[in-house]
Design a protein that fits this description.
- The protein has one helix at about 1-45; strands at about 70-80, 80-85, 90-95, 100-105, 115-120, 130-135, 140-145, 150-155, 165-175.
- With about 180 residues, the chain is α+β, with helices and mostly antiparallel strands.
- It has two domains: about 1-55; about 70-175, Ctag/Cox11 (Pfam 04442), CATH 2.60.370.
Length: about 180
Amino acid sequence: MSTENATPNATTRLNKAMMGKLVVVAILMFGFGYALIPVYKQVCELLGVNTITQKDDVAKNTQVDMSRSVTVELDGNAHGPWRFRPVQSSVTVHPGEMTTVVYEVVNIQPRTMVAQAIPSYAPQSAGPHFKKVECFCFKQQTLKPNEAKQYPVVFYVDPALPKDVKTITLSYTFFEVAGAVAQQ
C-alpha cells in the first residue's frame, strides 16, 4: 500500500514543481515584454533608426523651387443668380509651395440652389501643372436662400512648369446644376 500512496504524492509534488516553474516563466515573459519597449527605444536611438523628429528639427520641403516665382491670377464668373468672386485677385507662389486661396459665393435668390464650379487655366499649357489638393469644384454645392459661403482652394504649382510661364490665371465658372434637387 505504501507504493500506491507514494505514487500520487510524487505526482502531486512533480505537478506542484512544474506549476511553480511555469508561473516563474510566465512572470519572466511578462517582465520581458514590459521591458521591451524602453529597450527598443534605446536600441533605435543608438542605431539612429525609427526616431521621432524633434520639434526643432522641422523638415523643409525640398521640392519648393525658391529660385522662381509664379503669379496666380484669380477670376470668378457666375452664370445664374449668384455673386461669385475670389477674395483676393492674385497670389505669388513658388513652384511646389502649398497655397490656399478663398472664393466667396452668395446665393441672392429666395430659394435653395445647387451649383457646381468648373475651373479653367490660362495659358492652357499650365493646366497639367496646376495641382489642386482641395477644391469646392470637386463636388456640387448647396446654398440656402441669401446664404453666403467661403470656399478654400488648396493647390501647388508643379515645379516642372515650363520656366517661361510666369503667370497662370485660375478662373472658375459657377453655375446652377439643372435638375438638381437640394437636399433639405
